[in-house]
Every structure is written in C-alpha cells, then in structure tokens.
Amino acid sequence: MITIIDYEMGNLRSVAKAFENLGFAARISADPKDLRDTDKIVLPGVGAFRDCIQNLRQGGFVEPLLAHIEAGRPMLGICVGMQMLFDESEEFGLHQGLGLIPGRVVRFPDGMQEAGERLKVPHMGWNSIRIQRPAPIFQGFADGSYVYFVHSYYCAADHPEHVAASCRYGDVTFCAALWRDNLMATQFHPEKSQAVGLKIFENFGKL
User: Fold this and answer.
1) Mean pLDDT of 137-148
2) Whole-structure pTM value
3) What pLDDT is attached to residue 38?
4) 89: pLDDT strictly greater than 90
5) 3-class DSSP state of 9
6) Inter-CA distances, 29 with 2, 15, 47, 100, 193, Å
7) CATH number for 106
8) What is the pLDDT of residues 43-69, one digit of tens each?
9) Is 189 a catalytic residue?
C-alpha cells in the first residue's frame, strides 16, 4: 500500500490516480495512524513552506513519518514535500524543516538572464535534469529528460552525495531530486511530467 499524506497542501488526487493507473494500491489519508502500517509514503506539497510544515506538524504526521523512514521503508517527497526534508527555508522568514537532509531552501535571485532575456520567478514549465547519481526512481530513462517545475525557492544541499539530479535555471544549478537510502524526493512534479513522471511513480511503486 502506498499512502499519500493529506495535510491539505498537495496535488493529492492526481498523484493517487497516477499510481492507480499504473496498477498500484494507493490511498489518500489525513490520519497519521495510517502511516504506521503502510509500505510506502508519498509527501506531496503545494504552496508556501511555512504553511506546509505547520500543517504537517499540527496534523500529527511528523513522528510516524520519521518512524517510517527510520524503519527503512520507501518515502517520496514532491515539490515542497522535498523542501521540508531540509534543515530550513527562508520563504516568508526563516522556518525549520524536518532536518533529514542538510541544507537550506532559498529563493532564486531576481534579475537572472539567459540569452539576453530576463528570466521569470517562479521557475515554471519544462526543464531538463542531469542525473548525478543512479537513484532507484530514475531507472529506465535518459539523462537530460524534461520534467515540469513550479517553484520560486530551490534546495541548496550541503552534501553533493544527496543530490540525485540537478537542473539549471539562469545562473543557478539546483537540486532537482535527492536520494539518501530509502528517502527520495523531486523538486519537479512527476504527476505533471507525463511519461517521465509516470516512470518515476512506477519505479517507486516497485521498490
């Protein structure tokens, strides 16, 4: 069973539907007790880091989520669900994350340019990723694949060995996906990334 955490901050139904269409049993749950008996957890996230981490804590999800990871069971974070794994974020002030991955969540600088054109923030749309380490979720597709991003803040990991894939936007090369043992996450949205995203979900479901 794959449990998708419902803490009122994510594209829950689209993620669940993707897993179901691939033949995996998936449920959306707002009950932290469901995290104790599940095989895999997906932590999606849309919106501001501050609100996401607050809802996650107030919903009672942090303790069972950490226990799941400590037990060695697979976990996949998506977008802000990846950002919350880091130490802290500077979005709307300084806010503490879960502290599972050393590093910070910082904003893209204003005034970035490419080919003489000013780049917009948020970074929104399709961009290619460079695979840095062969994470299990990247089995079966090519380096340089295009995926879909929507974010104004990015993860700056302290240790390169945690970066599974990188992406470049303007002058910034950032962590597009991370991998540490059973813990995996993407800054991009697999549920919006068509065939590549479905392959990521399939790989995760087969773990």
Assistant:
1) 93
2) 0.95
3) 97
4) yes
5) coil
6) 10, 13, 19, 23, 24
7) 3.40.50.880
8) 998 889 999 999 999 999 999 999 999
9) yes
pLDDT for residue 9 is more than 90 = no
Q: Which of 68, 123, 167, 191 is catalytic?
A: 191
The answer to whether 75 touches 35, Cβ cutoff 8 Å, is: no
| Domain residue limits at 190 | 2-206
**In the block, which residue shows the tokens 């090519």?**
142
Helix (H) or strand (E) holding 180: strand 172-180
Is 79 a known active-site residue?
yes
Q: Which candidate in 79, 155, 167, 175 is catalytic?
A: 79
Which helix (H) or strand (E) segment holds residue 16: the answer is: helix 12-21
**Up-side HSE of residue 5: CA atoms within 13 Å toward CB?**
31
Instruction: Count up the domains in the chain and report the number.
Output: 1
State how far the alpha carbon of 127 is from the alpha carbons of 77, 102, 123, 124, 170, in Å: 19, 25, 9, 9, 11
Taken as a whole, the chain contains a residue count of: 207
DSSP 141: S
Q: Are 39 and 32 in contact (CB under 8 A)?
A: no
In angstroms, what CA-CA distances link 107 with 33, 122, 151, 169?
A: 34, 9, 9, 12
User: Average of pLDDT values for 85-91?
Assistant: 97
Share the mean pLDDT of the chain. Answer: 95
